[in-house]
Amino acid sequence: MKPGPFDYAVPDTLHEALQLLSGTERDTKVLAGGQSLIPMLNMRLARPELLVDITRIPELGRLAVGDDGALRIGASVRQTAVADDPVVREGWPLLTTAITQIGHPQIRNRGTVCGSLVHHDPAAELPAAALALDARFTVAGPGGTRTVEAADFFLSTFATDVEPDEIVTEVVVPPQPAGTGWAFQELIHRRGDFAGVGVAVLLRRTGERVGAARIVFFGVGSTPVRVPAAEQALIGSGFDAEATVAATRAALDPQGDVHAGAEWRREGAEVLLRRALAEAWERTA
Amino acid sequence: MSTPTAPGLPPLSEPTAWHTISLTVNGEPVTAQVESRLLLSDFLRTRLGLTGTHTGCEHGVCGACTVLLDDAPVRTCLTLAVQAAGAELRTVEGLTQDGRPLTPVQRAFHEQHGMQCGFCTPGYVMTCTALTERACRPDDDTVADELSGHLCRCTGYQNIRAAVRQALDERYGQQEETS
Ligand code: FES
Ligand code: FES
Predict the structure, then answer these.
(1) The pTM is what?
(2) Which chain A residues contact residue B12 at CB under 8 A?
(3) Residue B3 has pLDDT above 90, yes or no
(4) B157-165: Cβ within 8 A, 24+ apart
(5) CA atoms within 13 A on the CB side of B124
(6) How much is the mean pLDDT over chain B?
C-alpha cells in the first residue's frame, strides 16, 4: 500500500499551477486534501506522473459570502472549516449536514469540499448537495475561466466536466430563500461509510401547499439523480407523500453492487424520501 | 533529534521527485529530504524512528496512523510527507517522556483498560487528546463521531469509551450519564 513514484509541485499562484497542467504529455493530477486521491495512489489505482498541490495558492483558500449573497468555497478550503462555519450553518444548513456525514472527522480535517465534488464518487454526499442547492463551479483553464452549473458538471462515476489542464477554483452556492425547508438523509451500514442510498430535499411553502420542491437522490446511479416527476407530484398534489414516492419508484433504477443490493437501495430510497419530506416540511416557514 | 537525510539519493528522473521539507515534530524542528511519494506515516516511522504511529490499513480505514497536524487529528497514511511542510505535528511519543507522568488521556486508557493488544491505541489517544483541547466539552454525538474514525479489533470498544469519558470528565468536569 505505497504509491508509485511521481513528481510533486507546489505552486504559489494559479497561473503557475495552470502552466504545470498545460502543454504536458505527462499524466498530471491536482492535489488538494488528498483524501480521495491518496487512497487511490496507495492502492495504485491511480499512477499519475505529476501531482500539482494547490493548497498554497492564497486565493483558493477563501471561504466567503459574496455581494450577491452566494457562498463561495475556494478549492483548498477543508470540509471541517465549512462545516464549523456559523454563517454556513445559518444560511446553508443542508450543506453543513451533508459535510458532517462525509467519512470521519479525521478525513474531513484534511479533505476539501471542491476535491470531493471533482472526484465525484456517485455515493458521496457533496455532489447531491451541490445539485440540490443549484451550485455552480468556476473552472480555470489555459483559455480563461468558465462557469459550469451543477446540473451539467457531474458526468458519470468519477467523471466531471473538468479537462486535465483545468482547475476548479471554487464552488459557488446561491443563497437559499428565507423559509426554505430542507432535509439530508442517508442509509449507511456503519458511520463514515459511503452511503448505500441518500436523499436531499428542499421545499418551499405557499400557504398550506408546497410551492417549490427539489428532490435529489445519491447512491442510485452514476451521478446524483434529480427526480422532477416526484417534485411535480409533490407540488401538484399539495403535499401527497405517497404520490411523490410512487413517482420516485417509477423514475429510479438503482443497481446493486458490493455495498448494497438494488432492492435494498430502491426500498431505502422510498423510506428515506418519506422521512425527508416530513422533516423538510416541518422546517419550512 | 538528529536531522535525517535521504538514504543514498537515487538518481533523479525528474527534479521534483525529491524535496526538502521543514516541519516541527513534537516541538522539535526537523528538516529532511523526502521522496514525493513518501507517506507521512512512513516518514514518521522509518525516517524519524517514531514507530508509535502505527499503520494498519494504509488506505484511510482504520485510524491507527492518526497524529495531530496543527492540532487536528489526521490520517498520516492519507497525507504525503511533502504536504506536511511547515506543519506542527504531534505524535504519541510527544505526549510525555520516560520518567514523567502520563497525560490524563494516557492515564485514562491505562486505568480503564482501554486497550488489549495496543495496536489501535496511539490513534485513539491522539484523537482523544484533541477532544480534551477544545474550548468546551464535545457532546456525546461529537465524541461518537470522532471515535468512529478508529477501528479496534480487540476491546469491543466499551473500555475505550470509558477511557474517553474519564479523560473528558477530568478535563471539563463530570457530566451526567446520558447514554
Ligand atoms: S493506516 Fe492510516 S487509516 Fe489505517
Ligand atoms: S487493542 Fe488491539 S486493536 Fe485495539
Answers:
(1) 0.93
(2) none
(3) no
(4) B159/B112, B159/B113, B159/B114, B159/B115, B160/B109, B160/B112, B160/B114, B160/B115, B160/B124, B162/B112, B162/B114, B163/B105, B163/B108, B163/B109, B163/B111, B163/B112, B163/B114, B163/B128, B164/B108, B164/B114, B164/B124, B164/B128, B164/B131
(5) 29
(6) 92
Residue type at B53 in one-letter notation: T
Nearest-Cα distance to chain A for B175, in Å, is: 23
Counting as low any pLDDT under 70, the low residues of chain A are none
Indicate which atom in ligand 1 lies nearest the CA of residue B62: 4
Query: What is residue B11's predicted lDDT score, i.e. its pLDDT?
Result: 47
Do B40 and B84 lie in one domain? The reply is: yes
Backbone angles phi, psi at B155, to 5 degrees: -80, -20
pLDDT at position B16 is 61
Residues B86 and B22 placed together within one structural domain of the fold: yes
Q: What mean pLDDT is predicted for residues B35-40? A: 96
Nearest to A99 by CA among A123, A120, A125: A125
Across chain A, which distance is largest between two alpha carbons, in Å? 61
**A86, part of any domain:** yes
Give the pLDDT band of residue B12 (cuts 50, 70, 90): very low
SS3 letters for B26-49? Answer: CCEEEEEEEECCCEHHHHHHHHCC
How far apart, in whole angstroms, are the C-alpha atoms of residue A129 and residue A82? 14
Per the structure, the complete domain to which residue A276 belongs is given by 181-283
The answer to whether residue A2 sits within a structural domain is no
Q: What is the pLDDT of residue B84?
A: 98
Domain assignment of residue B122, yes or no: yes
One domain for residues B34 and B79: yes
Q: What is the 3-state secondary structure (H, E, C) of A137-186?
A: EEEEECCEEEEEEHHHHEEECCEECCCCCCEEEEEEECCCCCCCEEEEEE
User: Is the CB of residue B143 less than 8 Å away from at least one CB of chain A?
Assistant: no
pLDDT recorded at residue A239: 85
Domain that holds residue B102: 96-172
What is the average per-residue pLDDT within B16-36?
Answer: 94
User: Rounded to an integer, what distance in angstroms lies between the CA atom of residue A197 and that of residue A268?
Assistant: 7
- B127 and B164 share a domain? yes
Q: Which of A31, A51, A107 minimises the CB distance to B60?
A: A107
Q: How many domains does chain A have?
A: 3
Residue bearing cell 423538510: A280
